[in-house]
Design a protein that fits this description.
Layout: H1 2-20, E1 24-28, E2 56-60, E3 71-75, H2 86-90, H3 92-98, E4 102-107, H4 116-131, H5 133-136, E5 143-148, H6 150-161, E6 171-174, H7 187-193, H8 200-205, E7 219-224, H9 233-244, E8 249-254, H10 270-284
Parallel strand pairs: 3-4, 3-5, 5-6, 6-7, 7-8
Antiparallel strand pairs: 1-2, 2-4
Length: 285
């Protein structure tokens, strides 16, 4: 009898945990064929070991009672080599949907030196979100982009290089790679995105602090002072460029935490970070 009761309790706990996860559905980005290739994207399996990912989005929608009309496209990090799809991707869905924000997590293809590959995946995801805005209860003028680490480079690239149709309305950037300048970039991201022997002109083109204009969307940057992987100058230079162009921006530098904490509750300043993020989001609604 005791085992039966324990089994029921365990089953009940599992049901509660499952109930906390927002419902989701997946959409393949390129149902009519890929527009470009990194050389391995037509093969399987799709996982971090092969560095091959099926370009797709997973859509999490908030309950009607809390939805705000806002949506965010989430670009996980991973140095343009792998995807940190959990802590910097799917795990954000619970937080954002509780805030009434539709959360769309992007599985993008690794560039492998072909920068157009992840850029086209992110651009197509933005197009699909706005195309389905009415169906998903989203305001097409409140669609933002979020990225962590190399995903922050992808997010800021879409924010600074795309035209109005697929440019996001706001940016949330966690410890982002911003520059392709060899002095301050994350070299693995640099080599995977523009290539080891990239020209100075190409590096400048995708050093996104140099590409900010008054049309660049508002941004919040969140990072640790002791980030050992992506120098804080990346965020600082982006923030300064935004302010020079009179773009609404906020930057939060936490005393410690290193790199890659995402929405992990183990991050010492997780509570403060979530509060800072919510305050900023509320300010742009």
């Amino acid at each position: 009898m005791k085992k039966f009761i324990l089994s029921l309790a365990f089953f009940g706990t599992m049901l509660c945990a499952m109930a906390q996860q927002p419902k989701s559905f997946d959409i393949d980005l390129w149902q009519n064929g890929l527009p470009n290739s990194n050389g391995i994207d037509k093969t399987q399996p799709y996982n971090n070991e092969t560095r091959n990912f099926k370009p797709s989005i997973r859509v999490f929608l908030p309950e009607d009672s809390v939805k705000t009309g806002m949506a965010v496209l989430v670009c996980p990090g991973g140095g343009y080599r792998v995807l940190s799809i959990g802590q910097e991707g799917y795990d954000w869905a619970e937080h954002f949907t509780k805030m009434g924000i539709a959360t769309i997590v992007l599985s993008y293809r690794m560039p492998m030196g072909v920068k157009e590959v992840p850029m086209s995946d992110a651009t197509e995801a933005m197009r699909i979100i706005r195309e389905n805005a009415e169906k998903w209860g989203v305001n097409p003028k409140k669609v933002g982009i979020m990225g962590s680490s190399a995903g922050g480079h992808l997010a800021s690239t879409i924010a600074t290089h795309n035209d109005e149709a697929t440019r996001p309305d706001f940016q949330i950037l966690f410890y982002p790679v911003i520059s392709m300048d060899k002095e301050i970039t994350h070299m693995d991201s640099h080599n995977c995105f523009v290539g080891e022997n990239a020209s100075k002109e190409l590096e400048e083109q995708y050093s996104n602090a140099l590409q900010v204009t008054p049309q660049t969307p508002p941004a919040i940057l969140l990072l640790s002072d002791d980030d050992f992987l992506v120098p804080s100058r990346n965020s600082a230079e982006y923030y300064i460029a935004l302010k020079k162009n009179k773009v609404k921006a906020s930057m939060h530098v936490y005393p410690s935490g290193g790199h890659g904490w995402g929405c992990g509750k183990w991050f010492k300043y997780h509570k403060e970070m979530m509060q800072d993020l919510k305050i900023w989001i509320d300010s742009i609604k």
